[in-house]
Structure formats: structure tokens, C-alpha cells
Amino acid sequence: MAALPKALYTPEEFLALDRAAELKSEYHAGETFAMEGASENHDTIAVNVLTELGARLKRGPCRPFSSDMRVQIPAADRYTYPDVTVVCGERQFADGRRDVLLNPTLVVEVLSPSTEAYNRGEKAAAYRQLASLQEYLLIAQDRPHVEQYTRQPDGRWLLTEADNLAAVLRLPSIQCDLALADVYDGVSFEPAARPEAEPR
Asked: What is the pTM of this model?
């Protein structure tokens, strides 16, 4: 028996479904992709980054958002849920619901085994099509390692890497610093314990 074709949705249909759903999904060219639950390390890192940036940006022109804020990338026909998003200046939204951001300045993604290739490839390429985006961070959760992509005046992207807990990243797009020790506070890099074999 032939497999049934996947249902395709318009952006408007996707938003209506996603807003009513209990679980979040991302959207690309008519298809929806359910988001998996985050690991302890993933969630700890995302909360740490949001907390640190929130404290540094308080009462300034830039505002951070959690992973509940959608980002629309019209040129790539995508809706995503970055782990952390920062927008500076006037915030632009897709509609009056104010839950779909159009002009992020900084996007942060915490890498997971199941999403790392996507975050480095298709998703990164889509984010680069946002004229507002100035900086993109990819954060490993299994070791101290952050990749920082910064848009240059000529449109090229400069890669800076940090892999030491004593390192401090300067984030020029939002004019603040982010210490790896703060990013990884409370994170364990120990491999998960294997269950003991049952006696034979």
C-alpha cells in the first residue's frame, strides 16, 4: 500500500494550529516538524544564557526572549523557535498577537545530537537571510564550546570559537559580554550512567 502524502499547510494554517497546540512545532515550506523535549543540560544552558543576557540588557534598548517566541523567516518560508532570541530597538511582529518576531538581532541555539546538523546547516542558512540578524551563537551541551558567527560590514560572517570555561565572549550586536562559566553553570559533562546488567 502506498504511503499517504504528508499534509501541507499554509503559514496561516500553521500558526492557527501551533497556537492551539500543547507542543511546539517548527515550519518549513508547508511542512511541520514537532520539537523534541530538551535534555537537562540543554535546558540549563538555555536558561543560563537567557538569565545572563536579561540581567545585562535590563533597561536598555535590547530585549531577550525565551524559546517560546517564534521567529519568522519569510525568505526561507520558515517559522522557528530559537532557544534564546534578542531584539534591539523597535520589535516587529507578524501580527497583533505579538508572538511571531520578525527582526531578531541575536539568535542562540543549544546543540543537541538530533538537531546539530540542522542547526549548523539549513537553519543557519535560513537565519542568515534575516537582514536584522547580526549574530548567531551555537552552544554545545556536552563540552564547553561556543561558536559565534558575527555579520561583518561587507555581509560576510566571521566565526569565533571559545572552548574554555575561563573564556568571555564579546557580543558586539548587543554590546555586552557572556562568560562561558556563566553559560555552563550547573551543567554536568559526565556521561550518563549506564544501567547495571541484570543478573543471569
From this structure: 0.89
